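User: Fold both of these, please.

Assistant: Here is the first one.
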Amino acid sequence: KGYYFITDRGLSRQGNARDVSDALDCGVTVAQYRDKDLGMKEMYKEALALKSICRRSKALFLINDRVEVAAACDADGVHIGQEDMVYGEARKMLGKNKIIGVTAHNIEEAVNAQEAGADYVGVSPIFSTATKPDAGKPAGIKLIEAVKRAVRIPVIAIGGINLSNAAEVVRAGADGLCAISAVVASDNVKAEILKFQKLFE
């Protein structure tokens, strides 16, 4: 339970490596490397660097969408969206011991992800979000509650979350949450993450 860290090179003020390191210093146990623009080679190189930071803290290192990069650098797993590679293919490429998280926009997608074998679902977007304009219509707190009732796997809330609405997200039962803009675009990544971590205490 707690803050789920996702990188954002475009918003970051101090770079992904420093952001991930700061997050892990705050007790974050999962870091997801997300970059839709980098080429495979650059992404692989940065993934190796971020993975070694995670290894030092015994945190899990996941890669968003690029299953082949995750396989090549032996990441702990991947996070895939509904429009990315299908779960079965990702599982085949990574093997049975890796973590696969799946984005869900509604109850049906969450249940399907669990049935396919997903390790957790990322429910998104809860509120309207600037970091992912194509994320779809905000689903609100009700979706977290409904998905929590429908599945047994952990539920991570993503999309438009900030300190003014995060307490509601935790109350709704989210096992974790991510607030990309509120954290990586801030002057003090550690201070911001700790505020979110406190909500889970």
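And the second sequence with its predicted structure:
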Amino acid sequence: MIKVVPKVLVMSGYGINCETETAHTFQKAGAKTDIVHINDLIAGKKKMADYEIIMFPGGFSYGDDTGSGNAFANKIKNNLFDDLKEFINSGKLILGICNGFQVMTNLGLFALPSTDYGERISALEANTNNRYECRWVHIKENESICVFTKGIDIIHVPIAHGEGRFYCDEKTYLELKENKQIVFTYCDSEGNPANKEYPLNPNGAYYDIAGICDKSGRIMGLMPHPERSLYSISEPEYQLKKEIAKRNGEIIPEFIESNIQIFKNAVEYFNK
């Protein structure tokens, strides 16, 4: 059987700044990528329908003015939302990381069984310590319906955000939980819940939530950056781990497999 190589539209423009490493990670996972400025979509030079995956990367779109991800989301709402809904209804995939998650939250892409796309169900607010957090954390997959996280348990990933505190009301939380839409939660290295305690939970996120998906499992957003932790050499204490492995006659793998697996799962979705 001929393997399908999905095309990824990596969104760019107005302060998004993680498009290069995000495109690189998808390429290593087996996809083709185009970095596309949002204005080229609005002008019709590029079309969402020509792609299988839309990627909203991290960054600081519009400098986080009017709130993180808000202005970029409004640009999409006012110019591209019909195209985006058509893309969703065609059964394709959407992923958002950090600022991309914030944009998608403002767009209302994380529909519940009781809501439709375009209805906002949650928020990503300022970290409780009012500080920009830039370090590594552990997150655990919650046996969700998300297609991006098949075979993933605990992963070690960097964060870089000042507004990452997930919030929703109790009714929404219960529906997310019931429908297995809570994808990642903050934890310790053994997978024990952070219980909203700092520094395991870096931003005070309600219920330790680091990432969620929509009711179909095809649309995911998360605050941590797996695309920035593709290679083992990027991990903290890499040199120490390398030396220990050397003394044991072992070799550290090139990739952090659990992190690239998110992107491989997206590619494999089109080869079922």
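The domain at 7-267 is CATH 3.40.50.880 (Rossmann fold).
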